[in-house]
Amino acid sequence: MSLYLARRLLQAALVMLAMSLIVFVGVYAICDPVEILISPDADQMERERAIKALGLDLPLWMQYLSFLGNALRGDLGRSFVFNEPALQLILQRMPATLELALGATIMALVIGIPLGLYAGLKPKSFLSKTIMTGSILGFSLPTFWVGLMMIMVFAVQLGWLPSTGRGQTVEVLGLRWSFLTRDGLAHLAMPALNLALFKISLVIRLTRAGVRETMLMDFVKFARAKGLTNQRVIFVHVFKNIMIPVVTVVGLELGSTIAFSVVTESVFAWPGMGKLIIDSINVLDRPVIVAYLMIIVMMFITINLLVDLSYSALDPRVRLENK
Amino acid sequence: MKICNRAALLAAVSALAVGLPAAGQAQNITIAVGAQVTSLDPQYHALSPNYAVAEMLFGALASYDADGRIEPGLAESWKPVAPDTWEFKLRPGVKFHNGNAFTAEDVAFSIARPPTVPNSPSSYAIYTRAVKGVEIVDPLTIRLKTDGPYPLLPTDLAQVAMLDKETHEGAATEDFNSGKVAIGAGPFRYVSFRSGDRLELERNEDYWGPKPAWKHVSYRIITNNGARMAAILAGDVDMIDQVPTNDIARLRRESRVKLSEKDGLRIIFLGTDQSRDGESPYLSDNDGKPLPRNPLRDLRVRQALNIAIDRDAIVQRVMEGSALPSAQFLPPGTFGYVPDLKPAKPDVNVAKKLLADAGYPNGFRITLAGPNDRYLNDARIIQAVGQMWSRIGVTTNVEAAPWTNFVTRRTKQEFGAFLSGWGTSSAEASSPLRSLTATPSREKGWGGSNGGRYSNPEADAKLEAALTELDDAKREVLLQEATRITMEDVGIMPIHIQKNVWAMKPNLVHDARADELTRAQDVRPAAK
Question: pTM of the predicted model, to two decimals?
Answer without folding.
Answer: 0.83
